[in-house]
Amino acid sequence: MGQCGITSSKTVLVFLNLIFWAAAGILCYIGAYVFITYDDYDHFFEDVYTLIPASIIIAVGTLLFIIGLIGCCATIRESSCGLTAFAVILLLVFVTEVVVVVIGYIYRARVEDQVNHSIQKVYDEYNGTNTDAPSRAIDYVQRQLHCCGIHNYSDWRNTRWFKESRNDSVPVSCCKPNISNCTGTMSRPGDLYPEGCEALVVKKLKEIMMYVIWAALTFAAIQMLGMLCACVVLCRRGHDPAYELLVTGATYA
């Protein structure tokens, strides 16, 4: 019965190591996705410390690949030292992912204040040229999120670009894609996106942060299972005489 339980624990442990390798790729992908998306919205969110959870996720993903290798070798070779190191490293990574979740929630709560503080400044710097970074950022966000202005398209009236252009129109990035020959004129509001960008940018950034939080929670739970299986194998190895004889016999064979 003890041998059966040990075999089951070892099987689960090997399976978990394979999951760790898959998790390493997934975590690195999520971290890279956060970095790439942040680059598209960085003008609306000046706090670069928001990237700390994504950076930790990438580091954890890289470490998980090494952990999976250590775990597989330790499980196959029946190494007590290897399994102990495996369990300790998993515990450290588990703690790290809990920290990621906490930091993620902290910065997620700060997203709205950061966007509210920055977005007016970005719109004031708009000049309508592709060579200008704030202009590219606004045009990109308005096209991608299907929005116009800060709260709605009428916010453009308060910008320097609108006052200097004097044509009573908004950027063509405010135009709905199904409207042909749209010039952005305010005399045809039905051609423009009705929703403002501020709320949608906040929503998008919060969603991105939730990807990091849920990824950390999910793989923390998997690592907890890995630690338990490693502990079961270690404990039964030390207390089950039948298992010791099995290991010894296999070694001499």
Automatic annotation (TrEMBL):
Superkingdom field: Eukaryota
TM annotation in the entry: 12-36, 48-71, 83-107, 208-235
Entry's Gene Ontology cellular component terms: plasma membrane
Subunit structure: Interacts with claudin-11/CLDN11 and integrins.
UniProt-annotated location(s): Membrane
Gene3D superfamilies recorded: Tetraspanin
Keyword terms, alphabetized: Glycoprotein, Membrane, Transmembrane, Transmembrane helix
Membrane topology: Multi-pass membrane protein
Family as reported in the entry's similarity comment: Belongs to the tetraspanin (TM4SF) family.
Major location (coarse): membrane
Record's function text: Regulates the proliferation and migration of oligodendrocytes, a process essential for normal myelination and repair.
PROSITE patterns recorded: TM4_1
Protein name (record): Tetraspanin
PANTHER family hit by this protein: TETRASPANIN, TETRASPANIN-3
